[in-house]
């Protein structure tokens, strides 16, 4: 296991930063695929409440555009970050149902790995 430090910036004051430290689990406890069937239509990563420490989202290499990741208001102009085809990102979260995806192109998909 490795020590992971996550910087969290206060959205109301960018000068305030806190750091969350936790040990990264060696292996994910769950793996699944999610597809954004229609571009510009957000989908919830999981509709079921599923507690976790973080999730790794990996965009499928065959995607033809970005995946946009954020909260329930996510779209192509309002997102926490975007993931290019074939790339991935770790996302600290306490529950999978708080993460939403949107896509630049219909039928873009990802594989996500859950760490508890």
Q: How far is the first residue's CA from the last residue's CA?
A: 13 Å
The rounded Rg comes to 14 Å
Residue share in β-strands = over 45%
The coarse overall form would be globular
Give the oligomeric state: single chain
Strand order of the largest sheet: 3-10-5-8
- Computed structural class: mainly beta
Low-confidence runs: none
Write down the domain tally.
1
Count helical runs. Answer: 0
Number of strands: 10
- Main beta sheet: strand number and arrangement? 4 strands, antiparallel
CATH topology: Jelly Rolls
Descriptive labels:
single chain; 116 residues; mainly beta; Jelly Rolls; 4-stranded antiparallel beta sheet; globular
Task: Characterize the structure shown.
By secondary structure, this protein is mostly beta strands. The protein has a single domain (27-115), classed as Jelly Rolls (Sandwich). Helix content is 0%, strand content 52%. The chain has strands spanning 2-10, 13-24, 30-36, 43-44, 54-59, 67-70, 81-83, 88-92, 100-103, 108-115. The strands form 3 sheets. It has a 4-stranded antiparallel β-sheet, with no helix packed on it. A 4-stranded antiparallel β-sheet has the order 4-9-6-7, with no helix packed on it.
């Amino acid at each position: 296991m490795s020590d992971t430090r996550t910087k969290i910036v206060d959205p109301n004051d960018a000068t305030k930063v806190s750091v969350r430290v936790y040990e990264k689990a060696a292996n994910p406890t769950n793996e699944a695929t999610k597809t954004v069937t229609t571009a510009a239509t957000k989908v919830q990563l999981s509709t079921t409440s599923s507690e976790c420490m973080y999730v790794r989202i990996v965009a499928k290499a065959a995607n033809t555009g970005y995946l946009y990741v954020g909260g329930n208001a996510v779209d192509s102009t309002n997102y926490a970050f975007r993931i290019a085809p074939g790339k991935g990102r770790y996302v600290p979260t306490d529950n999978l149902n708080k993460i939403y995806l949107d896509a630049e192109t219909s039928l873009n998909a990802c594989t996500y790995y859950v760490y508890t």
